């Protein structure tokens, strides 16, 4: 059965908002700055990328792909030439490919964006391994994360907890789900989130 695609509205400036969750995908005009501050700096990735041989990042909420593109761009600029990035991202309501192309039009790494869009799994559930770059693989897992995460075979070095706000999307923030994240984490793994909700902080 195909997944229900994302329903979203673009504001006057072309910024996306989820109709289903009644929440924004990122702060208008500040998506990359937000990604840098919350997820790159929150996981100390500049220093880790600079000495990485292989880095696995996990993300709850692929959304527009902004965090992936920003991370890939940072990785290619700062990682040693032999380093590899494995980026795992979970998504329940994928955004249509033509909408992604519009949203990403002015973003960096056009070759990576084109490669990912060319291999877009649309709203098909399951595991989709996308070769975004010779050194970067995107593992896009589409479906209910409560069912797909326990089956993951990976040890994640850094987590991006970027689902919609806990009040809008509580399924992505339960103690049980966060315990599964811990079970699939490498020794010394880190996690970063935009959420300041007490329930999330306590569960982490």
| Count of all domains | 1
CATH topology: Rossmann fold
Query: How much helical structure, as a percent, in the residues?
Result: 25-40%
Termini, distance in Å?
A: 33 Å
Given helix and strand content, the structural type is alpha/beta
Instruction: Please report the number of helical segments.
Output: 8
Summarize the biggest pleated sheet.
Answer: 6 strands, mixed
Number of strands: 9
Question: Can you tell me the CATH architecture?
Answer: 3-Layer(aba) Sandwich
SSE sequence, one letter per element: EEEHHEHEHHEEHEHEH
Q: If you average the pLDDT, what whole number results?
A: 93
* Low-confidence runs of at least 5 consecutive residues: none
How are the strands of the largest sheet arranged? Answer: 6-7-5-4-8-9
CATH homologous superfamily label: Vaccinia Virus protein VP39
Radius of gyration: 16 Å
Estimate what percentage of residues fall within beta strands: 25-35%
Shape: globular
């Amino acid at each position: 059965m195909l997944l229900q695609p994302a329903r979203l509205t673009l504001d006057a400036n072309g910024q996306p908002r989820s109709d289903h969750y009644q929440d924004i995908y990122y702060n208008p005009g500040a998506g990359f700055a937000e990604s840098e501050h919350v997820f790159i700096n929150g996981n100390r990735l500049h220093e880790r990328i600079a000495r990485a041989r292989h880095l696995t990042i996990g993300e709850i909420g692929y959304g527009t792909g902004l965090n992936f593109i920003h991370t890939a761009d940072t990785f290619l600029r700062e990682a040693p030439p032999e380093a590899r990035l494995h980026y795992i991202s979970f998504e329940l309501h994928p955004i249509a490919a033509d909408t992604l192309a519009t949203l990403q039009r002015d973003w960096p790494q056009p070759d990576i964006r084109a490669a990912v869009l060319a291999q877009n799994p649309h709203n098909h559930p399951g595991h989709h391994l996308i070769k975004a770059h010779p050194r970067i693989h995107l593992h896009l897992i589409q479906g209910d994360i409560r069912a797909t995460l326990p089956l993951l075979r990976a040890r994640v070095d850094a987590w991006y907890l970027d689902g919609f706000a806990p009040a809008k999307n509580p399924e992505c923030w339960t103690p049980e789900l966060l315990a599964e994240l811990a079970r699939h984490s490498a020794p010394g793994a880190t996690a970063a989130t935009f959420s300041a909700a007490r329930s999330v902080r306590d569960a982490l």
